[in-house]
Specification:
Blueprint (H helix, E strand, L loop, with lengths): L8 E6 L4 E6 L6 E8 L6 E7 L2 E7 L4 H14 L4 H4 L3 E6 L10 E2 L2 H9 L8 H14 L5 E5 L9 H4 L5 H7 L8 H15 L7 E7 L3 E7 L2 E5 L20 H10 L4 H10 L2 H6 L4 H9 L3 H25 L4 E5 H6 L1 H7 L12 H5 L6 E2 L9 E3 L4 H15 L13
Parallel strand pairs: 1-6, 6-8, 9-12, 12-14
Antiparallel strand pairs: 1-2, 2-3, 3-4, 4-5, 7-8, 9-10, 10-11, 13-14
Helix pairs in contact: 1-4, 11-12
The chain binds adenosine-5'-diphosphate (ADP).
């Protein structure tokens, strides 16, 4: 490898039983190594590590995150990146919920870890896992600066009218209830890429972005600032997703509590794991959904139709909110790879100046590209997201601002 380890950033996305990671150059975006630890705490865990065109696998019990990261660091060493010895410039951690406290990439200190942990009441599925990942990495790479990059950060600046839920204001204030929004790292990165692609000043560009992966969200961005987004206090609100249903009448939950006797845990499982595409069709992966539709499965067809219907509802809302739209962009797994979703989401909108060119939409290209016809009033784009690169750049920037020190700086609520 030609790159020096101490110029690279390790990006870690730690889930409750998994760790996704990438070692990359924050300048060029070149990935030196990447991988995935899965089924931590279960009988058969696994690590899949890729570096220099090689793929190494490990199978066996992985009791906890620290054990998983130890295995990963051994694999790094085996593939020419001895992180503990050579050091890395920084570790960037994806953290799901920053609450009201964190809205910028933040150098991690003991106080920051404690505050992220306290925010677990707002994100019980995510923040504890993020904290475990952070603590394990700090123990294994002492002295390396670590930076938390929050999924909610970009949406901190949502207008009051967009982020306020119309419930008793005292209850909302007491419990931190407001729209926080998620996938912010992706929406912000893609918004920047779109402005660059269109060669427009970001602060004069209005855009609608659909981030359609396993989780899915849309955003309206006005002149580089967030105007609205579909996810809310939690990632449950908004679009239909792989296993989450997005918007619901809250009365459904009261009905289920009273009539079916469901408690908070049962409702949590229903809303987070057994709803959305999976709840309607039995599968959560979009490729499988498309195979079922092709085979004539009616529940899969309905799931797809509900998915598209919801996308179009928010498209309409955001067109009106923004008034003038300079780009509509699709990103993430489904957004980047499903021409059918893109075409169906925007079908019949010629009167609004919105059209998709069938040949461009189905072309086997990668990278940022137009899918609207040449000269269209509203450019429609596909732009690949790259949350790891955005996190690596943010981490690198924070380290530069703090002169490369690790634990000596108070974060002061940044
Ligand atoms: P995550 O939210 O986990 O980061 P991704 O952005 O990777 O997820 O998106 C995963 C989704 O993208 C899955 O539903 C997968 O089926 C879908 N996807 C990936 N490739 C394709 C494809 N070629 N056509 C349709 N859907 C795809």
């Amino acid at each position: 490898m030609s790159e020096r380890a101490d110029e690279l950033v390790l990006v870690i996305n730690s889930g409750s039983s998994s760790i996704k990671y990438q070692l990359l150059d924050p300048e060029s975006g070149v990935v030196a190594a990447s991988g995935l630890v899965e089924r931590i705490g279960e009988e058969r865990g696994s690590v899949e590590h890729r570096a220099d065109g090689r793929r190494i696998e490990h199978e066996g019990p992985i009791p906890d995150h620290k054990a998983g990261l130890r295995l990963v660091f051994d694999m790094f060493a085996d593939t020419g990146h001895d992180l503990a010895a050579a050091g890395v410039r920084a570790v960037g951690h994806r953290v799901v919920h920053g609450g009201e406290i964190f809205y910028e990439p933040t150098l991690i200190t003991d106080d920051v870890v404690a505050a992220i942990s306290e925010l677990s009441t707002l994100a019980p599925l995510h923040n504890p896992a993020n904290v475990t990942g952070i603590e394990s990495t700090r123990e294994l790479l002492p002295g390396v600066p670590q930076v938390a990059v929050f999924d909610t950060a970009f949406f901190h600046g949502l207008p009051e009218a967009a982020k306020t839920y119309a419930i008793d204001a005292k209850v909302a204030a007491a419990h931190g209830i407001r729209k926080y929004g998620f996938h912010g790292t992706s929406h912000e990165y893609v918004a920047g890429q779109v402005a660059e692609f269109l060669d427009r000043a970001p602060d004069r560009t209005n855009q609608i972005i659909f981030h359609l992966g396993n989780g899915a969200s849309a955003s309206a961005v006005r002149g580089g600032d967030p105007a609205d987004t579909t996810m809310g206090l939690t990632p449950l609100e908004g679009l239909v997703m792989g296993t989450r249903g997005g918007d619901l009448d809250p009365g459904i939950l009261l009905h289920l509590m009273r009539s079916a006797g469901l408690d908070a845990d049962a409702i949590d499982r229903l809303l987070n794991r057994n709803s959305g595409i999976k709840g309607l069709s039995g599968v959560n992966d979009f490729r499988e959904l498309q195979r079922l539709i092709d085979a004539g499965d009616e529940s899969a067809r309905l799931a797809y139709d509900v998915y598209i219907h919801r996308l179009r509802r928010y498209l309409g809302a955001y067109l009106v909110e923004l008034g003038r739209v300079d780009a509509i962009t699709f990103t993430a797994g489904v957004g980047e790879n499903s021409p059918a979703v893109r075409a169906d989401a925007l079908a019949g909108l010629e009167n609004f100046g919105i059209t998709v060119d069938p040949a461009r939409n189905t072309a086997k290209e990668r990278g940022a590209r137009y899918i609207s016809p040449a000269g269209a009033k509203v450019p429609v784009l596909v732009v690949p997201t790259n949350e790891e690169l955005a996190i690596a750049r943010a981490a690198s920037r924070v380290v530069a601002e703090h002169g490369g020190r690790s634990n000596s700086v108070e974060s002061g609520g940044r």
